[in-house]
Amino acid sequence: MQNTIKLMRLSLGIIFVWYGMLKFFPTLSPAEDLAIKTIDIMFFNLIDGSLSIKLLAMLEVAIGIGFLSGFYTKIVTIIFLGHMVCTFAPLFLLPEFCFTQAPYAFTLVGQYIVKNIVFILVGIIIYQNELTKEIR
């Protein structure tokens, strides 16, 4: 079981470093426009789009490195889960990008968001494993 959890942690780490790194280079990330628009709405246009995407990139790469390193996994997982909750914001803030027929027919963007349910489940399993380690 521990090997499976380690593989889940490493998988999330690779995905987050990879997707996060793409956001450092304009137009490489397919989520760039959606992320910028969502952050604009959530922060009342207080953060410039080019800065907000870089901050998001740094957050995602940091989460990825945290998962890959295995250090402070409990804290990394809490930050990760918070980030994952925020990824659902476009479903409510920008439904025109997420649905062809709300609330059941997703666009490709909507599918991209909803797949995060699996990531959240993996994060919960990793977090529970960290709690179990503390009890032992």
Q: In summary, what is this structure?
A:
This protein has helices at residues 2-22, 32-42, 49-69, 73-86, 89-93, 95-98, 108-114, 116-135, and strands at 99-101, 105-106. It has 136 residues and is mainly alpha-helical.
Number of strands: 2
How many discrete structural domains? 1
> In oligomeric terms, what are we looking at?
single chain
Rg, alpha carbons: 16 Å
Number of helices: 8
Distance between the termini: 16 Å
Largest sheet, described in full? Answer: 2 strands, antiparallel
Give the overall form.
globular
SSE order, one letter for each helix or strand: HHHHHHEEHH
Share of helix among residues?
over 70%
Low-confidence stretches: none
Strand percentage lies at: under 5%
| Average pLDDT taken over every residue | 96
Structure notes:
It holds the Pfam family DoxX. This is Doxx family protein. One of its GO terms (cellular component) is membrane. The protein has 136 residues and is mainly α. It has one domain. The chain is 76% helix and 4% strand. It has eight helices and two strands; from the N terminus they run H-H-H-H-H-H-E-E-H-H. A two-stranded antiparallel sheet has the order 1-2.
